[in-house]
């Protein structure tokens, strides 16, 4: 998982063996526009060759603006992701719903409004969100959503069920400060 530019920006000359064998490669679009782009594009190539899942998070409106909507969409499209995650503003600005097609599903998160699932053949599903009891911090909610979604997909869930799992984990992240989930003394995440 390469969710941000921080340490991932330093990736260079990564042996293919380190990339091989993962079930999912989750990439942030931030990382795809920086110095680690070559390594992450190679990771996506290995993933596709091995039948793994490739996901890309659109990352930010500012990023799409800086790259340009058409160039950004083309960059994402060339990687042939299995899933693209974006919020509604990112999806609108980058016309990211257009990426939905054979092999690519676009998941658009709309805050408290239903999440959209765009699949091949203009198939659209929406999934309502149960409200969080108390929102304390939004930091990490998007990454938590992706983690919950992908965990469910790896357990063979259909996209609608995976979105529900993503909502559940994101809701937990929203109720705790600092992009963390509370754990017990043994390091196990508690509900």
TrEMBL record:
Q: Which domain of life is it from?
A: Bacteria
Q: Which UniProt keywords apply?
A: Kinase, Transferase
**SUPFAM superfamilies registered for this protein in UniProt:** Ribokinase-like (SSF53613)
| Pfam families xref list | PfkB
Cite the Carbohydrate kinase PfkB domain residue spans from the record.
5-182
Q: Does the keyword Zinc-finger apply?
A: no
Question: In which family does this protein belong, per the annotation?
Answer: Belongs to the carbohydrate kinase PfkB family.
Write down what this protein is called: Carbohydrate kinase PfkB domain-containing protein
């Amino acid at each position: 998982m390469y969710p941000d530019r921080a340490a991932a920006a330093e990736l260079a000359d990564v042996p293919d063996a380190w990339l091989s064998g993962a079930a999912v490669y989750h990439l942030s679009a931030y990382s795809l526009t920086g110095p680690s782009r070559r390594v992450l594009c190679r990771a996506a190539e290995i993933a596709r060759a091995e039948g793994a899942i490739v996901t890309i998070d659109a990352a930010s409106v500012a990023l799409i603006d800086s790259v340009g909507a058409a160039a950004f969409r083309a960059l994402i499209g060339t990687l042939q992701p299995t899933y693209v995650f974006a919020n509604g503003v990112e999806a609108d600005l980058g016309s990211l719903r257009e990426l939905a097609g054979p092999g690519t599903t676009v998941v658009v998160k709309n805050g408290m409004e239903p999440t959209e699932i765009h699949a091949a053949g203009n198939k659209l599903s929406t999934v309502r969100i149960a409200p969080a009891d108390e929102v304390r911090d939004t930091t990490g909610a998007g990454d938590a959503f992706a983690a919950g979604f992908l965990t469910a997909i790896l357990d063979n869930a259909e996209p609608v069920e995976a979105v529900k799992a993503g909502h559940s984990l994101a809701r937990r992240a929203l109720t705790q400060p600092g992009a963390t989930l509370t754990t017990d003394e043994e390091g196990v995440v508690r509900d």
